[in-house]
User: Fold this.
Amino acid sequence: MTTSFTNITANTRLRNGLLLGGLGLLASFLVVRSKTAQAERENPPRGKFVEVDGVRLHYLERGQGPALVLLHGNGVFANDFEYSGLMHQLGERYRVIAFDRPGYGYSERPRTTLWTPDAQARLLHKALQEIGVESSIVLGHSWGTMVALAMGLQEPDAVRGLVLLAGYFYPSLRLDVPIVAQPAIPVIGDVMRYTVSPLVSRALWPLVSKRVFSPMKVPDRFRRLPPWMALRPGQLRASGAEAALMVPAAISLSKRLDQLRVPVQIVTGTRDKIVNPAANSERLHEDLQAGGQSSELHLQPGVGHMVHYAHPEQVVSAVDAIAAQVGEPMGLRSERAEALAIASESGV
Assistant:
């Protein structure tokens, strides 16, 4: 009798627990769906679209002159280059094309493809051809540096040079990968990214932002980036998948560095807490120089991972250095850019 009563009680508790858990997931799903819809209403696509191999890509385009492609890092999207001010400065004398990489912003990311840096590079080469760009300088930040490297390795005739910001180039132990990669796990990850994961990520957003900018303060310009655009279920899957791909991608690319034949400018912060600068950017520079390849390293003292926010003018100088090295004709400067150039040359 006692055993039977105990079993009934346990079953009742289990049913109640499952019911409460289900209701919690349903409530989370409704909140995430509402926040996602609101974010997309308030932040509609502001660029252009190009379709390649059945994949629709969104990109921003500014300015005129030699083509310059910008590739963002994990967790953000192309607008990050606008918020930093980098796109505006570069657009004064380059044709700047900033892609939402597959799965980010308003670009698609079919699940039928494993979106390694090489796969993304092939897609972007075709997209550039589709919009009339035969050759370009390619700039990548963080995870985007691996895609930039893959582009330079695959099509050196189409890539005039590379500018690599705070990049990850060599495999290392990453304790954060198992956590960040969870939304990309089939079934379980699918449930989580439509329910709990976006809510947890939103609660952690201020701490994560503080870490990527540390030791700098998070600038007001970055706060313009709408968190819920970055935390939509589809983008969380892309971010998770790329976290899981970090180490194998770095292994693949680092084995082919001796095949790189385009000039490289490397910019990194000395206080980067996301990617060890000595083990990545500084090592890459040393390896390229040892192989007789063209590489220049620019260290930003006291700067963290978001180097393009700290000193965007240094990034612009790195792009200009590539353009000068490959004999790329500069576009006509705006009146403001011309005034700044004259003042700089005269030492004012």
